[in-house]
Amino acid sequence: MQNKSIWLDNYKDKNIKKLDKDLTLDVLIIGGGITGISTLYNLRKSKLKIALVEKKLIGHSTTGHTTGKINYLQELIYYDLEKKYNLDVAKLYLESQLTAIKQIINTIKKEKIDCNLEKVTSYVYTDKQEDIEKLKKEKEILARFNIKVNEHQNINLPLKSLYAISVNDTYVFHPLKYLKSLKDICMQNNKEIYENTNIISINKENNYYICDTAKYKIKTKKIILACHYPSFLIPYLFPIKTSIEKSYITASLFNHLKDTYITSSLPITSIRFHQDKKVI
């Protein structure tokens, strides 16, 4: 058994640069996961002076330890949003997810990125009697938004399931291959990326933010936080709405096809299959 993400296994990148000088920028992006790299990619043709810094290596934190799904079917998110807010908010969230999926797919096709993209059927299932009606409500809400949703009494897995819904227009990919390609494209457009570069503190001086690293300073007009909650703002302070969670991801051989699955409520089990029949 290897204690390592399959996306990071055999990851090689000769073009890794650590910050080695002070910088003055228009925009600093903090965080080199899919959010940060995608932001830099979308700004790659801008005339603004932009740089990205990553504490570790590109994609080696959250993005490199996910299941690599490109999916808008996420537990009971639309049921929860409609219940807490209203149907309009649920629709806005769905539209944001569909827009993000479209952008990723279009980018992969436009840039001819080899990242094991596959179109798959995705399921949300439950083994709890009390969640069946909620999952049916989830289907009803999606149907009102013109999403074709299928119903199932069983899923094609050796897991207990009382009820499930599925959609056929979702995807899976290799997130590190995708990020590495976006990184290369950004650097070809003369956008600076500094890895193994940790921001220790941020202070405001006049119209600039002064970002300190261990040895150098970055002076910037704007900052985009594409990272976890930035503890360097107020050390050890966690806002009321911030919670600490722990998750585990495992991979094993399994003789199956390529669909993805997720449970409707806690504890969450999220499953997908990779091309060599690994279940994640």
Give a brief rundown of this model.
The chain has 2 domains: 23-65 and 176-225, FAD/NAD(P)-binding domain (3-Layer(bba) Sandwich), CATH 3.50.50; 73-111 and 119-169 and 247-279, no CATH class. The protein is built from 5 helices and 14 strands.
Task: Describe what you observe in this structure.
The two termini are 14 Å apart. The chain is α/β, with parallel strands linked by helices. Helix 1 runs parallel beside helix 5 and helix 2 (77-84) crosses helix 4 (132-144). The longest helix is centred in the middle third of the chain and has 24 residues, at 87-110. The chain has helices at residues 34-42, 77-84, 87-110, 132-144, 175-188; strands spanning 23-30, 50-53, 69-70, 118-126, 150-152, 163-172, 192-194, 201-205, 208-212, 217-225, 252-253, 260-263, 270-271, 278-279. It is globular, with a radius of gyration of 21 Å. The chain folds into two domains: 23-65 and 176-225, 3-Layer(bba) Sandwich (FAD/NAD(P)-binding domain), CATH 3.50.50.60; 73-111 and 119-169 and 247-279, no CATH class. The mean pLDDT is 91.
Q: What's the SSE pattern?
A: EHEEHHEHEEHEEEEEEEE
Percentage of β-strand residues = 15-25%
Q: Biggest sheet, strands in spatial order?
A: 7-2-1-10-9-8
From the helix content, strand content and strand pairing, which structural class follows? alpha/beta
Oligomer: single chain
Global geometry: globular
Low-confidence stretches: none
| Tally of alpha and pi helices | 5
Tell me the major beta sheet. Answer: 6 strands, mixed
- Domains (count): 2
Helicity level = 10-25%
How many angstroms does the end-to-end distance come to? Answer: 14 Å
